[in-house]
Amino acid sequence: MAKLAFFMDYERYGRDEAPAILQFFQFLRDKGNEVDFFPTLNELLSVLGDKDYDAIAVSIFSSIELKELLKSLIEIKNLDSHITTIIGGHGIKGFTETLALCQGVDIVVEGEADLTLPLILKHIRRTEVNVYRAEIKTTSEAKLLGSEILPLLKEECYPPSISKEEAEHILDESFSRKVTIKGEEVEIRVPVSQIFINTEEGTVSGIYGTNTFIKRAKMLNPGLKYENIKLHLKPFPNAEEIDSLYTSYPWDIIEDRSYSRLSLYVQRGCNWNACTYCSIGTLPGRRVSPEKVLRVITEAREHGIKEIIFDDDQFIQTKDWCKEILDGIIKRGLNRSLSFGAMIRVDALSDISLVKKMKKANFVKIQVGVESFIKEKIEYFHKVPIGKEEEYISKARVLVDTLIREGIDAGIFIITTRPCEEKALVEICREIEEVLNITMASLEKHSRLPTFSFSDFLMAYPGAPLLKKEEYKEILVPIKILSSGRAEVQVMRVPYIFEFKNSALLGFFSSLREISIKRGVAPEIKNETLEHIEDILLAIKLTAGSLDSDIAVRIEAVFSALNLLSEAEQDRLAALFGVDRKNIKGYLIRLGQSDFKSVVKGVKSINPEAWRFEKVASSARKDKEEIMQYLKLLENRLYEIEMIVYREIKMHMKRSKNELIKAESRKEAIKKIHDIRAEAKALMKRYYPYYRGRRTIESQLEWLEEYEKAIISQ
User: Fold this and answer.
1) Domain segments of the chain: what residues?
2) Buried-exposed string 677-698: b where 16+ CB fall within 10 A, e elsewhere
3) DSSP 408
4) What's the CATH fold of domain 3-239?
């Protein structure tokens, strides 16, 4: 079988737990493949020349990674041109056919590859590849791709490593599946699909539901009716197959990399699956049996794991399954040496007995995808059926309070902004007010801070319903040199973030970015702190302070006009100024700085009603006054919260110092150090989102460690 290197840029995201995908590695090994894991590109590149892998599989978490992916794949091919590259993961959704054309890519697998990748690997061996050199004709579009990637594309090009005949052999593969048809258990053959193979003769693909797929299915299953083909021949694992896939775990990787934390992905999909910003789209209701999950958890304890995070999109899909897991953890005593975490929806944890059971099972942190405490945003995100928004928000508040009351850390996801709101800054203030009210209530009732994790702008994920509704910015990803010799670069356009529909949001993000850079804290840390709320409020203040300035009103007047113009009118306006409609907003803003009269004249010539400069100016003055008053209240509220925490930490520091001074003997001093350390850790856990306080306590813990060493050495 194949010798495979598996790469995912895992450490890029600051993750230090063993990734959930490791369990799939063991399944590949059980099929006879040799599989090595690489969480960083540098580590992979350092061994490629010596290992002679047949293939490298790359799992892509987000489409934002695609530009870097091309660079990585070309570097990989530069070091080992005999290797076959296979890419997959959630980040390729919506781009599979185009990615199969990428320079350096041989095979693209879409969706869940549990059943198809082992069949692909049966056909993969190291290949002889011809390398040709190419020069790029630097078109204006090619210049946008970046100075790092262009030289790589110029150096060497690699034609596909798989012939069309070999690709057809891969697509002739199938796997067995037992299904029930009219009450009778039947064994059928499922053709592999959702595979795109780059060959010298062009892309060869097996796509579920196409005529070619149906033809293969009928050849493998003579007499099987079309409705049964459609129902039972899905390319992803069904519930029984999910459970049968996972029989053991690659503990050698855990030990080699000294992981103490482990992620498990034991359920697929989400029961709701209707949020407008989300692109998961995975069929729910498929999970690993509780007995197998508990066996892995038990083995994890034996291999030095201290914490397990359930990485499922929605942990509580079926309460009976969850209760069986929780009861098993408690009965086996796994809660005494392991802590757990999970992610849930607001409406999944209404049963207080289940919360108490999670606490007893030592679930120390529950992350909740609340996203907002504002009714209009919940409706926009379609978190619940229309009309249920207020009920959802009420449940969210109760859930946060319940988790904290039970001693479970509550991690609350919040999307700070949305692209279409006219009163954007006011809406952000409303959101922060809700967050601060919940925080203060938690502090006063439970002496504990919930953790709010902010996503400051709405990402445009490929396949998300919002892409059909809102305009979005794109990243240009170079995928291929079209031919040898002098050639142009073919590019792929990847959605990135949604376009802002008012200038205030643009100013807010510009200010917030500068403030965040000065803060000097990594975003994945900063966005979960009270200090980030400080930064948000400061960015609002800076933006609001200039809302009624002449330049700000001019820019907002352009935004307002374009929002009022129909698409046809925008096309006419763009044609008037000789630019593409996608670029008209930026063009008008730039032109307005030097020739504002031409902007006004141009808009009015298309639709006089769309130009509302005076109304925009009046609204800006009112908004500025309203926001500044609002900010005073929010700043005072945040300061009050921080002072309560600061005073308790300060008292702890003073008391600790006095207790150590009073310690008369060496033995008593060491005992005091242990007591103070325990108190400090408990304090840091309760007030973790207050970054300044956390750093103070961390400094104390470091000092205590050095002080203890000094006492022991005396």
Assistant:
1) 3-239, 260-419+458-466, 644-713
2) beebeebbebbbbbbebbebbe
3) P
4) Rossmann fold (3.40.50)
Euclidean distance between the first and the last CA atom of the chain, given in angstroms as a whole number: 60
pLDDT at 95: 86
- Count of residues for the chain? 714
Task: Give the pairing of strands 339-344 and 307-310.
Answer: parallel
- The Cα 214–Cα 230 span in angstroms is 9
Tokens of 190: 């499922």
Q: Is the pLDDT of residue 492 over 90?
A: no
Mean pLDDT within 448-465? 89
What's the mean pLDDT when you consider all of the chain? 89
Tell me the C-alpha distance between 259 and 569, whole Å: 58
pLDDT at 484 over 50: no
Q: Give the whole-angstrom CA distance, residue 679 versus residue 685.
A: 10
Cα separation, 691 vs 159, in Å, equals 51
Dist CA 70 CA 102 (whole Å): 8
How far is Cα 626 from Cα 622, in angstroms, rounded to an integer? 6
Give me 657's structure tokens. Answer: 């110092």
Whether residue 699 has pLDDT greater than 60: yes
d(CA 245, CA 241): 6
Interacting residues of 237 by C-beta distance below 8 A, sequence separation 6+: 112, 114, 115, 245, 286
The string over 132-149, giving b where at least 16 C-beta atoms fall within 10 Å of a residue's C-beta and e elsewhere, is: eebebeeeeebeebeeeb
Specify whether the CB–CB gap between 55 and 84 falls below 8 A.
yes
What secondary structure, in 3-state letters, does 612-680 show? CHHHHHHHHHHHHHHHHHHHHHHHHHHHHHHHHHHHHHHHHHHHHHHHHHHCCCHHHHHHHHHHHHHHH
3-state secondary structure of 495: strand
Look at residue 207 in the predicted model and tell me its pLDDT.
85
Per-residue burial over 290-326, b if 16 or more Cβ lie within 10 Å, else e, is bebbbbbbeebbeeebebbbbbbbbbbbeeebbbbbb
d(CA 212, CA 222): 15
Residue 170 pLDDT: 94
Give the pLDDT confidence of 109-131 residue by residue, as tens digits. Answer: 998 999 999 999 999 988 765 55
- Smallest CA-to-CA distance from 358 within 397, 408, 310 is with 408
CATH fold for domain 260-419+458-466: TIM Barrel (3.20.20)
Q: Which residue has the tokens 């600790």?
A: 656
Query: What is the amino acid identity at position 420?
Result: C
Q: Which amino acid is at 219?
A: M
Q: What pLDDT digit, counting tens, does each position of 134-172 carry?
A: 444 444 444 555 555 555 455 456 677 888 899 999 999
Determine contact, residues 172/187, Cβ cutoff 8 Å: no
Query: What are the residues whose beta carbons fall under 8 Å from the beta carbon of 569, sequence distance 6 or more?
Result: 606, 607, 610
Q: Got the DSSP string for 558-603?
A: HHHHHHHS-HHHHHHHHHHHTS-GGGHHHHHHHHHHH-HHHHHHHH
Q: Take residue 294 and report the two structure tokens written for it.
A: 């508990």
Helix H segments across 347-486?
A: 352-360, 375-381, 389-405, 424-446
- β-pair type (363-371, 267-268): unpaired
